Structure formats: C-alpha cells, structure tokens
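Mods, move this if it's the wrong board.
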Amino acid sequence: MTQVSIWAYPWDLHDIGVDAAMDRVAAQGVNTVSLATSYHAGRFLQPGNPRRRVWFPQDGTVYYALDEARWQGAEIRPLQADIVASEGDYLADLCARRDAGGPAVSCWTVCLHNTRLGMAHPGHVMRSAHGDPHSYALCPSSPAARAYVTGMVAEVTERYRPDRIELESPDFMGFDHGFHHEKDGLGLLEEETFLLGVCFCDHCTARAGAAGVPARAAREAVRGLLDAAFARELPEPQFPDFPERGIDAFDSLPDLHAYLRWRTEPVTSLIAEIRAAAHPETAVLLIDAEGSWGGGVDTAAAAAECDGLLYCVYFTPAEQVGAVLAQARDAIGPDKTLIAGFQLFHPEVAGAGDLRARVAAAEPFVDGVNFYNLGLVPPARLDWIGAALAG
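Not the wrong board. Structure tokens:
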C-alpha cells in the first residue's frame, strides 16, 4: 500500500510539536497527514495531547489562513478559527515540509455539517417533512451551500496545493447524527429516524420538482407516516424490511420512493462540482461507509465524479472487512483510488492483533489506509499502526 495516513487536528500538532508528531507517526510507517481543514464543534477527550486533555473546538470553522477577498459577496462564507492566528497555519507548515521531502498532505474537509453556519443561515439547512430545521446540516440542494463548499475547496487547493482533499458530509445528514442533550421519549424505530432525516426544504422541493419528481406528495407521505408514529402508544414497525432493503422498503409508496431515488442527484452533482472547482493536481476523495445510501450517496456514481473513496470500516469486524471493501472496489472499478479508514478506538478495536487482522483483510482491495486519530488515542496505541503494517 502506497498511502498510509493519519487523521490529525491542528491543535494537536501545536501541542505535541510538529517535529515530534511527525517523528512519532513516521516511526509507524505513516507517510501522509490528513489534517482537519474545516471542522465542527464537539467535546474531545485527548489522551494523545499533552496540554488540551479535554477540548471543545470552535464551532464550524476552517483551519487555514482565509483570504477574505475571495469571499466578498458570498452569502455563506467560512470563518477562520481563532487558533490559526494565535497558534499558526499548520496546513501551510505541513505543505512546506512536504515540499522539502516530508510527508504528503491531505485536507480533511467537513462540507455541510456546520451548526454555526446552519443557525446563521436557516434558509439553507435541511428541513423535515414538518418544516423543522436541522440546524447542524446545510442542504446539498441549496445553491449557497454548494457555493460555500466548492469555494472552500477551490481556495484550499489553489493556495496550498495539498495532495488530496477528503470530503466529509457532502450529503444529506441523518436525524440521528448527534446533537447536544437529545431527548426521544417515543422510542424511534430505524424507519422513523430515517424519515425524520429526509429533507424537504424549499431548495430540495424546487430541485426535485424541476426534475419531475413529486416532492410535495412525498412530503405529505412522510408527514403522514411520522404523524401516525407520533400518535401510537408504542412504536410499531410499518416497514419491517427496513433498513435491509434500503429505500426499496418504501416502494409501496411510489411518490416517496421516487423522491428517495432522486436524493442522490444533489449529492452526486455537488461532488462533481467540487472536483471541477479543485486544482487538477489535488485528488478529491469522498469519505464513505456502509449505509451511506441513507444520506443520498450512490457510491458508484459519486466515485465516478471524483478520484475515489476513503471508505471507513470503523465498526466492521475483521472477518467482514475484506468482503465490505471488495464490494466498494467492485462499485468504483479498478482505476479509482480506494483508501480504507480504520479507527484506533477501544473497545471497538480490541488491540494490535485485531487491527493487524483488519488491515490484512483490506490489503488486497485498497491503495492505502488511514488511521483515526493522532490526538484522540494514547501515544502508545500508535504502535498498533506499525504492527499492523508490518503484517
């Protein structure tokens, strides 16, 4: 495998020290750093960071030196994280090191998952069939949201020339992605959780309608299903073959089924626009995983519009990794890049031997591997990477 990367946050490079961090990962065979370039908020426990043991990143910001002139007149525009000014532009640092013979650089880029922007621009977020906003998710049908993402990728690739861009969340985010202090007294079933995450914002309704898709009838169907679920004393499955059949579980409702089939169009076309906006010397990969159809991702169609996939098998048992990645390879064909994404979290990964088995199972199908995450695991656990690559 030619590409071995580790996901990293800029604040971890700052606190560990770039030289020390690069030495630490190079010793394990890592030759690429996937740096968070655009990211969301959260509460991070960081045993790998010597200073920020628990960290709450600034919400919905970019981690590079923003060129404000490029964004004049843009309806949705990025915000440069405060620590870029106070702690440094680590994307520039890594690119300079690469040009001097250091590791390759990938930009780990969160696209539409942005609560700060969603709350600032409620007209461009996903909305449920009842019209309720999903403030954490800009909608891929929104022209302004699409311009934000393509503009960000164009800026990063033109100014910094990273080796690749990794696109996280260019699709429809589900209702169950996660937010602060969620409350569900109903006991949502999988089918209801999925339906709550189907977007019927004005942009989706107009875009689907222009394609001849019955968006308004689909919305009424979803509202009816959800209202009935909310009225029942106890949860009761209406589509017992969901999620095994995917969207085909709803084929008894033709308008809804047509709308669910259509949802791949905004996602696939956005990925194509991102690839067109990016500098031609930078590869563009979609971060994908099993079940992404729920967010409107057609894996084969999406991969055809970019340079390949970074396919995450975080929770896939070692004995199933090969089959899952073989299916991904079959979907995208032999000429597209396929990187397997693994996490170093315990107990999801039992230990070094477990990771070794997973990587070995992936090797026949992939061009490289990526490991999650430099600061989120103990430094000693990075030894698992070297052991896995050694076979």
